[in-house]
Write a structure and sequence with these properties.
mainly alpha, 141 residues, single chain
Length: 141
């Protein structure tokens, strides 16, 4: 508050105090109405919140599926890598064992024998032909 008015420092401060006091009383006496939200608007808000929750659940579940698929892909790639390593080891072992004659000798040493013609089943699969079973082969001879 300004204490210096028209060259006089001895100002009656009662008026200003009374005004302040009355303004504080007016402020206290003001009853504000609480904001009442209509029922339809409440329902609208609830539907919006529910929609947001559903969308977020769907998004999180999709991310979980993607994570699971990525994990399966990594497992399959590891299995493929392992099978390729096994395959290359088997090729090296096959070349080490020698040609057909060496394999035939090893089989005979282990009690195996060559199949005769009547024990062999030859199947020709073309795009136009249906697969031939063993009974049809016997009838064709």
């Amino acid at each position: 508050m300004v204490a210096y008015i028209h060259g006089n420092l001895a100002v009656d401060d009662r008026n200003s105090r009374n005004r302040k006091h009355s303004m504080q009383q007016q402020r206290r006496n003001v009853n504000r109405k609480k904001a009442v939200i209509p029922a339809q608007e409440k329902i609208l808000y609830m539907v919006a919140v529910l929609a947001c929750v559903i969308v977020s659940v769907v998004i999180v579940s999709r991310y979980a599926q993607i994570y699971e698929l990525n994990t399966q892909i990594k497992q399959i790639k590891n299995e493929m890598r392992q099978l390729e390593q096994d395959n290359s080891k088997l090729k090296i072992e096959m070349s080490r064992l020698g040609g057909m004659e060496q394999m035939q000798q090893t089989g005979e040493d282990n009690g195996m024998h060559m199949a005769s013609d009547d024990q062999m089943i030859k199947i020709s699969i073309n795009n136009n032909d249906a697969p031939i079973d063993q009974h049809q082969m016997a009838d064709a001879r």
